[in-house]
Amino acid sequence: MFRLLVSDRMTSERAGPAATLRLRCPADWLDTESAAVVTILLGVIQMVLSACFAYTIQNPPKLFILALILGVLIIAGGSFTMANERNPSKILVQCCAYSHVIGLLVALLAFCLYCYSISHLQEELPCLNLPEEYFYRDHCPQEYLKAYSWCVTLLLIIYDVGAAVMHCFLSVMAIRTLKMA
Fold it and tell me: Which of 8, 18, 50, 162 sits most deeply, having the most CB atoms within 10 A of its CB?
């Protein structure tokens, strides 16, 4: 712990241009590296859920591709933030700002499409003429598919909101750092 405090003081005492290109946090309680790691983890979870989302009822077809692309953008934004914290440079701050702004826009688009998808799940799925061995506790398999689709879409909405908050916060920090540099 003491070593971390000393290294932070030594970093802040450097007057070089690289030390000024670090993302500036508006709050003292936030660590930028921790925010980058959380962002990367949100992207990984989004990508894993996109694989689950591929086997659900999707109102706009092939919506799982949006979840996959969003996961890649979230991971890229967190990776640029982490790289900038390790080796600050103007190019990394620009890449960080661009990736977070694009990720925020895609996250907002995905939020709208996920909400549309969850609100337009069919109310009553027709139960096909299936043999009795396909039924579980007198419920049609389509009812379970609808419940599974609803749960996965809700999880995507929750993680998308978290990613949008992180992208918003980190993009403001990166744009503020670019304006000061």
Answer: 50
